Amino acid sequence: MSGCRRKALLSALAIGTSIPAALAGAALPAVAAHTELPSSVTLVGSLQDELGCAGEWQPECAATRLQPVPGTDGLYKATFDVPAGSYEVKAALNDSWAENYGADGIAGGANIPVQAPGGPVTFTYDHSTHRLSDDLPESLGGPSAGHWLTSDTITWKGLDPAQATSFALYTAANGGLTVSDGKILGGTAKPLSLKPGGLDGALAAKYPHLAGSTVLKLPAEAAREARRLLKGQLILAAQDAAGNTVATTGLQIPGVLDEVYASAAKQDLGLRWKSDRPELSLWAPTARNVTLHVYDNGSGGEPRASVPMKDGRNGVWAVLGDKAWKGDYYLFEVEVFVPETGKVEKNFVTDPYSVGLSTNSERSLFVNLADPALAPAGWENIAKPVVEKPEDLSVYELHVRDFSIADKTVPSSDRGTYKAFTHQDSDGMHHLQEMTKSGINAVHLLPVNDIATIDERRELQQEPQCDLPALPSNSEEQQACVGAVAAKDGFNWGYDPLHYATPEGSYATNPQGAVRTLEFREMVAGLNKAGARVIQDVVYNHTSGTGQNSSHNLDRIVPGYYHRLNPTTGAVETSTCCANTATEKTMMGKLMVDSLVTLAKTYKLDGFRFDLMGHHTKQNLLDVRAALDKLTLQGDGVDGKNIYLYGEGWEFGEVANDARFVQATQQNMAGTGIGTFNDRQRDAVRGGTPFDEDPRIQGFASGLFTDPNPSPANGSPQEQRATLLLAQDQLKVGLTGNLKDYSFIDRTGATVKGSDVVYGGKPAGYTADPSEAITYVDAHDNETLFDALTLKLPQGTSMEGRIRMNTLALSTTAFGQGISFWHAGTENLRSKSLDRNSYDSGDWFNVLDHTGTTNGFARGLPPERDNRDKYPYMKPLLADPALNPQPAHIAAARERAEELLEIRRSSPLFHLGDAKLIQQKLSFPSAGPNQAPGVVVMRLDDTVGSDVDKDLKGMVVIFNASDKPATQTVPGTAGARYSLHPVQASGPDPIVKTAAYDPASGSFTVPARTVAVFQAK
């Protein structure tokens, strides 16, 4: 999982810090509940500047102090003339934030909403309860446990229907619903009837998380008014026999929007060109009006044209523009009721389907992607590296900025940009060409879509103001210096999507206009020329924000639709890290599919990797697959069937265990041909998990049992041996492509299937086809492989020993039947100075040196944000000069890693591409309880079944992770003509050359910490 990798907007809330609506609910430090009477009580909030204070959220402002009520200790009160509007308030004591109270009298609690009609408002603070109240009629809004699913069906989550005798839907076109003395004021009531028995049939299947909810039915006349009612405020009310309101709740409306506006799913949205005229379409079904504003420039100035858009019956607003608008910029003005504010707002927003943007995404761009000026030479007939099936892929995961920001052979203006990939003679491109020559055939780019958290104006991007290289190798100073500018530098992984179909502007030499479109295409062409297909990392599971105060516009176009909401409160779910999107909703799913098709066609991409894919529905991914499969070279410039899809199939959060839908998780994706990352093999090889309290837990390639470190977390020797043999079974399953039905003999001597091997209480094997397994031992997430081995191997392990274990770990991906996946620089022992989450750690901790001068180790303690609890483990390691590889070590590691790629590429036996062939030809002769700990033997026998490799009869691969030589007898190999693979036999590693085969006994001897490949002619 890509974890929490967002730039922090605020690192702390200090005295005088404002608390905008976007941070409602953020708790400030506060003391315990029982305190002495305060010397002062101040009404603090977003209304203070309206009441005579110098600004908002000012606890020291005397103008909004509440006065003690004579004769009543602990009661404070004041009346203010409050202008009409929506505000948020709290009570601050003693002129500071040290003691403050919010909603429900909670210390440091959530901001309290105030909907003022205009005029006097009396506020009262009771110190005995710490509650702040006002004398306004209670406005209706807040939690939304109601769900309008179809035009005539509503559910209420958590309501006991026995507490009421009648129910009603209250509507108000412009908001303003309040409750006073048990009566709802200011709107129109639509009676609802109670349906016994709950949801059933298709609705029960579609909304499993609403099981047990109270079901209410709208009369036919009201149901026919759904389109009109959806444009205003909606409140559900339960009433007693006397007509008094006993409960209210807001309504979640995505379900009914999907039903009422179902035809919108087939509508083209965004910008299209009719001859030379632009046509724009925006789905905004709850909007009152939508106006298109056209601008000459990307920022500033008045619109050159403002054109009302026409509302279609499917909720799509459209306009046909003027041909003179080409190259201009535009915004939509959406007039819409916003439940968050309780009133109609006019929101100026960019196009969610934007294909071009101005600097920092301020406005959308009228750009014709078919303009020949935006295509590099030869673009229409660009030659792609040939990959016949997904299992042939060897993927190299790379960050655009990392690739060249430190490469002095790239012109300074092009460093950190798409343009750097056009300099074929740079150090970076030479290294990439060396990797593709060895066997890498695809580059996976971390997110390159428009990113919310990077200032695209390169001249304003800040650099650390310290002499970083001069600081001690285990100092906290580097991370403090890097952290001081982290929110304002040019680095971020980019998992903060803002617009999906437009490239990120900070990676262009000029973020204005269509330069980024041309340069992105030039990058793709450059990578293709270097021998690599191009895969884009995409993020559809969350947005960088939500609500009226967010820079992300989806929620400001159709409030309450695009994000996944808590079924009881209506709050946006944030299990991913941020505002979870609801791709199970029709139009969010459509945005996902449509933008991926646009990216594939526009940039001739060869694959997509989905961040936190398990938060999407399985159907989402199947819809993407079907849409891409329709693309053809002749009609679209790209063969969609050859676009490979994979992602993080993790299962967690509010959607876990298919709670809301069938997820796109590891086990659920079996049989789809869509890949998921194989954490089973990763953890078996590295040891432990990325989330261990003690990072020294060992695995197969880090010395478990055979070369133990001092950590008690590894257990007793007997426990270590048992864990290691289980890890070997998990590794064996991983080498098959993680096939669930692959049959072999396990560590106990029993014949089992891949799905019978356990991993954390779940099956280790879960795929139906090897194309569904992404086999890796490191990625951008978590510690790099070198750093993990630094933490796990005994500290006294020599650098040669570390290189050997690095090579051995990588070999488990190179020689497996799934897709081999390497993090950029792993071949060069890449380190991030032990940083486990470098998403915002700047160029310093993410250094990628193509010259092999440094690997990035010992550049100081990594950012405390995600690493402070591990500092006691890290500090002595970073201070140890013996753990810092020198250029000769880095070169040796690279040569041995490249050998692995060459061997993988040398024979189709390493990527058979079929579960039946794998069962037939691949076996693990070393098995049972007496197998050697730390040794895995894999045989690929091409004498059975069809002849896959015309040049070979088979291979034997021995992974010896132990600290001693291993001799293994392989049945059926005696008398054959096995020899060490020619790549290893002629390579620079003298130790592997001592590996030997004895034809008389069929035994193979392999040195310690070595993987050896033998082939039979």
Write the layout of secondary structure elements.
Elements: E1 41-45, E2 65-68, E3 75-82, E4 85-93, E5 99-101, E6 112-116, E7 119-126, E8 131-134, E9 138-139, E10 146-150, E11 153-156, E12 166-172, E13 178-180, E14 183-185, E15 188-195, H1 201-206, E16 214-217, H2 220-224, H3 226-229, E17 233-239, E18 245-252, H4 254-260, E19 270-274, E20 277-283, E21 287-295, E22 305-308, E23 310-311, E24 316-320, E25 329-338, E26 343-349, E27 364-365, E28 394-398, H5 400-404, H6 427-438, E29 442-445, E30 449-451, H7 477-484, E31 497-503, H8 515-529, E32 533-538, E33 542-543, H9 554-557, E34 579-580, H10 586-603, E35 607-610, H11 618-629, H12 633-636, E36 644-647, E37 675-677, H13 679-686, H14 717-735, E38 743-745, E39 751-753, E40 758-759, E41 762-763, E42 773-775, H15 785-792, H16 799-814, E43 819-823, H17 842-845, H18 864-867, H19 871-878, H20 887-906, H21 915-921, E44 922-923, E45 935-941, E46 954-960, E47 966-969, E48 978-980, H22 982-985, E49 996-998, E50 1003-1006, E51 1010-1016
Parallel strand pairs: 10-18, 28-29, 28-43, 29-32, 32-35, 35-36, 36-37, 37-42, 42-43
Antiparallel strand pairs: 1-2, 1-4, 2-3, 3-7, 4-5, 4-6, 7-8, 9-13, 10-11, 11-16, 12-15, 12-17, 13-14, 15-16, 17-18, 19-20, 20-24, 21-22, 21-25, 23-24, 25-26, 25-27, 30-31, 33-34, 38-39, 40-41, 44-45, 45-46, 46-51, 47-50, 48-51, 49-50
